[in-house]
Amino acid sequence: MNDSTEPEGGRKSWWQRLRGGLSRTSASIAAAVTNLVAKRRLDAGVIEELEEVLIRADLGVDAAGRIAAAVGEGRYDKSVSAEEIKAILAAEVEKVLLPVEVPLAIDAAHRPFVIVVAGVNGSGKTTTIGKLAARFSRDGRRVVLAAGDTFRAAAIEQLKIWGERTKTPVVAGRQGADAAGLAYEALASAQAQRADVLIVDTAGRLQNKAGLMDELAKIVRVMKKLDPSAPHAVLLVLDATVGQNAMSQVGEFQKIAGVTGLVMTKLDGTARGGILAAIAAKYRLPVHFIGVGEGVDDLMPFAAKDFARALAGLERPAA
Questions:
Q1: CA distances in angstroms from 45 to 67, 184, 195, 270, listed in the order given
Q2: What DSSP string runs through 207-259?
Q3: Do residues 187 and 112 make contact, with C-beta atoms less than 8 angstroms apart?
Q4: Contact 255, 236 (CB under 8 A)
Q5: Separation of alpha carbons 4 and 212, rounded Å
Q6: To 10 degrees, the CA torsion angle through 137, 6, 290, 187?
């Protein structure tokens, strides 16, 4: 992962922010694990209790069972330290996550490269779009934003603020405007400006699945009139604090929007950070970015090893 060393001026490195962000999850796992192995040799009861601890951390039944089995392998009736269990946990979680550690590749053959961003209201979707705009701009790319969540005036205003912060043009209309028409206008504008990336915000009201599906389909349909290959990526933003709810959101949005990759936010606000491993095991969708704070730099490319070790409460792996 980038930003792994301590920067000048005392700013915490990305690893320190990730470790701190996942501290609630790692602390809850560590406390339970330490309590489990403090006075007992490893037996079937300990393994079963360990599995329950990992399920409570939202790692999912399959991953929890696999990790518990790995801990028990060859160690029955022996004393096992909490650090040994954490090392096995990190190794097993890394195995689950490595296949989904996929960077978001901006294909320069598509100009603009169109990214549609989906997610339920409150998931951090609009903030994520702003952070992505900042990241792409720092990389020297010209970005245009489309305020396609026309259902909520707050979403339109929030995106305009991010546009000002990141010096990124925003195509926006009034509340209640046709989202597909706005997406068409934004793509035409991005093409005229020779922009490298267009990021389109969308409504997130899952309770009206039929309406949401129709709206997203229409957005895609009208953009294809200008660029038959668009959109080039469909990112789903997930809020880690909702735990198992995030799992069901992936299934719903995959059906509605044809999700190509995931962004997980708010990992610093939950003891359920293990949900990312459960989602990876079930859906095998690329995880492009994770967020552990509100700052513009608190969204970084996903790295399986770093995440797994931070989740287990271990130190950063040697480079």
A1: 15, 60, 59, 28
A2: GGHHHHHHHHHHHHHHHHHH-TT--SEEEEEEEGGGTHHHHHHHHHHHHHH--
A3: yes
A4: no
A5: 40
A6: 0
For residue 295 the two structure tokens come to 């700052």
Whole-prediction pTM:
0.92
Residue 247 three-state SS: helix
User: Which residues make Cβ contacts (< 8 Å) with residue 71, sequence separation at least 6?
Assistant: 42, 47, 50, 80, 85, 88, 89
DSSP state of 131: H
Question: To the nearest 10°, the Cα dihedral for 151, 288, 138, 143?
Answer: -40
Place of tokens 């399920």: 55
Cα angle value 119/22/304 (rounded, 5°): 75
Average pLDDT per consecutive 10 residues, the chain (319 residues; last block may be shorter): 43 85 90 84 89 90 90 85 91 95 96 96 92 96 97 94 96 95 97 98 83 90 96 96 91 91 91 90 96 85 95 79
How many CB atoms within 10 Å of residue 305?
17
Per-residue model confidence (pLDDT) at position 209: 80
Question: What residues pair up with 171 in beta bridges, in sequence order?
Answer: 146
User: Of how many residues is the chain composed?
Assistant: 319
pLDDT digits (tens, 9 = 90+) for 65-93: 999 999 888 888 888 888 999 999 999 99
- Bridge partners for 290 per DSSP: 264, 300
Tokens of 286: 């690329």
Strand residue runs (E) in 122-253? 143-146, 170-171, 197-201, 233-239
Tokens for 160?
């305009």
Rg (CA), the chain: 21
Of 312, 292, 294, which is closest to residue 21 (Cα–Cα)?
A: 292
Residue 313: closest CA among 57, 107, 7: 57
CB 54 within 8 A of CB 64: yes
